[in-house]
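thread: overnight batch results

M.L. [08:02]
morning all. the overnight job finished for the chain we discussed friday. pasting input first so we're all looking at the same thing
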Amino acid sequence: MTTAPTTQTLKTKPQPFVSIAVLSLLFVGAYFALRALPDAQCGFLHYEEVVNADGSVEFCATNHAGFLDLTRLKYPVEMELSQPPAGLPGEPQEVTLELLTTGGMPIAPHELAVTHTKKMHVMLIDPSLMDYHHVHPQPVGLNGQYTFEFTPKRAGIYQVFAEVVPLRSRRQIIATGTIAVGEGSAPEMTFQRRTESVVDGLRFDLGEVAERLRTGIDYHLDLQVTAADGSEIELEEVMGAKGHMVAFDAAGKGFAHMHPFDSVVAERSKPAGQDLAFLFNVPNAGWYRVFAQVQVNGREVFGHFDLQVE
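M.L. [08:03]
and the structure it wrote out:
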């Protein structure tokens, strides 16, 4: 009797080297993805969704930003600025801002999240660090172009910082550029320790601040704003809070955009005129000029301070 041969199907196991190759590719991809992110502490922020009382949605930072040293941070965004021939100080400047990815693709307004009531925050500062402007460009269609106007007080090359949060990443990114104003040499940059200033009838006071601050340490700056004679005033909301702060360093390496220590939502419930607390943390030694922005009777006023860090 002849026995028919049986057919057996053998299952082949994946070779070890195939799995190793796949894992290697995943690790290499993750490595380069991480390298593409900002590499300094507080270089990027995570945002959470907040629904306002009127039903509108905005994104608020879940932690507070320190100083952004833009010599050490790289963001996947570019900014191109164009303007008519450089005007003179005191003349309004019409500026067109084009926001692009590093690959050259335009970033349209619908791709940006609303943060602190605006889709884009642009900060401008002159070479002497005395003339600071905070503006919010308006989109021109969907081609990544935005326009804004500001009236510079001084001549020189103004530094421009654009701060946005793309909806896809929900992370802060910064674009930089410059704008020329007038001709001739820029005013000299000078510093003197200052924790109080009087501007346009308002007194700005940081209270007790250490003579010299140290790098890498969180400091609480408690801002109090009154009339010049010390009487109480009513602070109005500006960008969803009773006040904001921005700091620039003498070395021109970057800036810190500081929101009130409490969240934007908590800040809206504070009584008008109450003191404001801000978190200040910088990585480099040197002089810093800090601007405090408030609004009274529909008028924005900027106080300023000088702090030394060692």
